[in-house]
Amino acid sequence: MNNCVKWSYADEKISMKEIMELESVWEVKLPKAYVECAICNHGGSPEPEEFLVKGRKRVFGCLLSYCKNSLDNILEVYNGIKERLPHNIFPFGCDPAGNYICFDYRKSQDNPCIIFWEHELGAIESDYTQEKLKRIDLKEVQENAIKPISCSFKEFLESLL
């Protein structure tokens, strides 16, 4: 278990105002441990950086940024993928392969769990023909893109290898 994450390449420190603006747009309360981390480390890359998803090592590329002009801007990333995400799942980090580490508020509005979302599996209706849609369960396909990581943001950081 890891108790000391070091961050590199973080963007300039933000205030609670930016956090609260995002909470307002998403209509959620972000976890305290995430807020404390994001204020100083948004846009940054952690060390150690590896974590396990169903026994397979993955890489935590960076925390998404609150900087408006960043390619990894948290709100722009969300807006770009939200139609492919189930309701109440929000990205906060990414890996180098274009997948996202997300808060999953579907079971709890107070304590979201952390999931890994594989972008190649995040399907929507327009990805399929009408004939194919008759043969598949789209919700099941979308659920297959989601892999549990941990019960909290704090636990996720502590699990980095």
TrEMBL record:
It comes from the Bacteria. Pfam families: SMI1_KNR4. Coiled coil: none annotated. Residues 13-159 form the Knr4/Smi1-like domain. SMART domains: SMI1_KNR4. InterPro entries: Knr4/Smi1-like_dom, Knr4/Smi1-like_sf. This is SMI1/KNR4 family protein. It comes from Tepidibacter hydrothermalis.
